[in-house]
Amino acid sequence: MKKRISLTLFSLLLSFSSFAQQQPDTELLTRVIEMERLIVNWSPTDAGLGRVMAYTCLDCPATSMTIDRNAQLEINGQLRSIDELALKVDWAGAITVTNHAPTHILKFSIY
């Protein structure tokens, strides 16, 4: 009898664990990622402002990311117009993204 109850409890726990692992990640999480180099390809269109090749280290592979008019630009702690990204191609700093859109930049923090 004890063996049967233990086996039933184990099966129940296993099914709950499996259910928890299958649930989609609905919680919106924000991440700030330090970038060694950000190469901006400024080409404004109706859909966005361009693409960014982001490098977490100089020897790391690049990640292609997007930016749009809703992105914020902060330089040395002060908010600036996002259009200032067009003034220079090569930047360094941190970017803010979410787990729901990890290749879409919400904020540039340049220092």
**Averaging pLDDT over every residue, what do you get?**
84
Strand order of the largest sheet: 3-2-1-6-7-4-5
Strand residues, percent: 35-45%
Structural class of the secondary structure composition?
A: alpha+beta
Number of strands: 7
- Helix % is 10-25%
Give the SSE order as H and E letters. HEEEEEEE
Sheet bearing the most strands, described?
Answer: 7 strands, mixed
Radius of gyration: 22 Å
Low-confidence stretches: 1-14
The rough form would be described as: globular
User: How many domains comprise the coordinates?
Assistant: 1
N→C terminal distance = 67 Å
Number of helices: 1
How is this structure best summarized?
This protein is of the alpha+beta class and about 110 residues long.
Can you walk me through this structure?
The protein is α+β, with helices and mostly antiparallel strands and 111 residues long. The chain has one domain. The chain has one helix and seven strands. A seven-stranded mixed β-sheet has the order 3-2-1-6-7-4-5, with no helix packed on it. The longest helix is centred in the first third of the chain and has 21 residues. The radius of gyration is 22 Å and the shape is globular. The N terminus is likely disordered.
